[in-house]
UniProtKB/TrEMBL annotation:
One of its GO terms (cellular component) is plasma membrane. The keyword Membrane applies. One of its GO terms (molecular function) is transmembrane transporter activity. It comes from Aneurinibacillus aneurinilyticus (Bacillus aneurinolyticus). The keyword Thylakoid does not apply. It is a multi-pass membrane protein. The chain crosses the membrane at residues 20-48, 54-77, 98-115, 171-193, 226-250, 262-281, 288-313, 319-342, 354-373, 385-403. This is MFS transporter. It is found in: Cell membrane. It holds the Pfam family MFS_1. Keywords: Cell membrane, Membrane, Transmembrane, Transmembrane helix, Transport. The lineage of its organism: Bacteria, Bacillati, Bacillota, Bacilli, Bacillales.
């Protein structure tokens, strides 16, 4: 029998010490990931003067194991205790990061990164599994939004801190050392979580085969009409964002070729918009439809991308920044919406498997969508690509709002 850990949860997430420990550990872990990426990008680009193709293998090394292993990791997370999984993954990732300090060649570093990313595939399912068990049902939106806020904050603080450290010391190794410390500190904080955060009973684990557990994870998704719709919306928005994300430099180069700092300003505005939107929902007490959040996210993201395609050389800087914040707000709403939908629609004993499936598809999109964007820009103009992607996302959001009552009227099963 599942042991509930939410019977005596405080009324406010800020008074929930278990959640605060988990959130602080998440902050340190995410911050370490960004510091690590900045350090290795600097090493490959400026110190080793690596070829562009070799540099492009860095994000692949981060994302590729997630495509292959996330579903496997999700099955095992549902069988194991999530607290121990998180502690072990952070400790092992910390050790792998320390090893990077002594690796002499790019290909060996990529090999260590693949190993560390493979270990990291256990992290997200275990983290979400813990959150489901340490907050009450009516706190899931606030907790999910807090996780999103911290994730977006680290996207701003991490690169800035890495750049600051590199400016002061010119040593990428210091960033790697700080990453090692962040991951080790995250593991130490997680040790303060209670040991009674457990899953289904041992007899069920012994009777079920790995294949049965994996199949059950897919049945959980395919058997839930609302969850399928939410995931389709989320993946559609993610695909659009990833298609245009890396091409924003190409678009801005055509519009304002002399303002090389403009991409940095827009990316910062996107991060600020995402932080503001997720932080807002971390303060919301009442229940909100996660499908409405996803529709709003698609609509705002689509409008922002559409407006970017309409800008020209005479457009003032403030409009670029406002559109960036609009895009960030849409991204933040989409993040909160999909995370909240998975938490609400998934049985607690299947959280790991569902997040594993979600993460494997997400990592595939993170690799495939930018490549698709590059191919499309070669075939068409950058502004045409932004207009088309923006129109599709806007149409998706508007259609979702119009069909929302019909789509959420019942929670019929597609697989019975």
């Amino acid at each position: 029998m599942h042991v509930s850990t939410t019977n005596h949860v405080p009324t406010s997430p800020w008074k929930n010490s278990r959640l605060l420990y988990a959130l602080l550990a998440h902050l340190l872990s995410s911050l370490g990931d960004w510091l690590d990426f900045i350090a290795l990008l600097t090493l490959f680009t400026y110190i080793w003067q690596a070829e562009p193709l070799l540099i492009s293998m860095l994000p692949v090394a981060y994302a590729f194991p997630g495509i292959l292993l996330s579903q496997i990791a999700g099955v095992w997370v549902d069988r194991w205790q999530p607290k121990r999984v998180l502690i072990c993954t952070d400790a092992l990732r910390s050790s792998c990061t320390l090893l990077l300090l002594f690796v002499p060649t790019p290909y060996l570093i990529l090999s260590v990164l693949l190993l560390r990313s493979s270990i990291g595939t256990f992290h997200l399912p275990a983290q979400q599994s813990i959150i489901r068990r340490i907050v009450s049902e009516n706190q899931l939106l606030e907790a999910t939004a807090l996780v999103g806020t911290l994730s977006q904050l680290t996207k701003i603080i991490g690169p800035m801190l890495g750049a600051f450290m590199l400016t002061l010391t010119s040593s990428y190794k210091l960033c790697l050392l700080l990453t090692t410390f962040c991951l080790a500190a995250s593991a130490l904080l997680l040790a303060f979580l209670p040991s009674d955060i457990s899953h289904s009973d041992e007899s069920n684990k012994k009777r079920a085969t790995f294949r049965m557990d994996w199949t059950e994870g897919w049945h959980t998704i395919l058997g839930n009409r609302m969850l399928i719709i939410c995931l389709i919306f989320s993946f559609s928005v993610t695909t659009i964002i990833q298609i245009v994300d890396i091409q924003i430099g190409v678009l801005l180069r055509e519009i304002k070729p002399l303002q090389q700092e403009l991409p940095g300003w827009i990316i910062s505005a996107i991060g600020l918009g995402a932080v503001c939107s997720t932080a807002f929902f971390s303060r919301i007490k009442q229940s909100i439809s996660y499908f409405a959040l996803l529709c709003a996210g698609a609509l705002l993201t689509g409008l922002a991308v559409l407006f970017l395609g309409l800008l020209n050389a005479t457009t003032p800087l403030c409009y670029f920044l406002l559109i960036g914040m609009l895009c960030g707000a849409g991204t933040g709403l989409s993040f909160v919406g999909v995370q909240f939908s998975i938490q609400k629609e998934t049985p607690s004993g299947a959280i790991g498997r569902v997040y594993g499936i979600y993460h494997s598809i997400l990592n595939f999109l993170l690799i495939a969508a930018p490549l698709t964007g590059g191919w499309l820009v070669k075939k068409h103009e950058a502004d045409h690509l932004f207009l088309a992607c923006g129109f599709f996302a806007t149409l998706l959001g508007v259609s979702g709002f119009f069909l929302r009552k019909r789509l959420v009227a019942t929670k019929e099963h597609l697989i019975k």
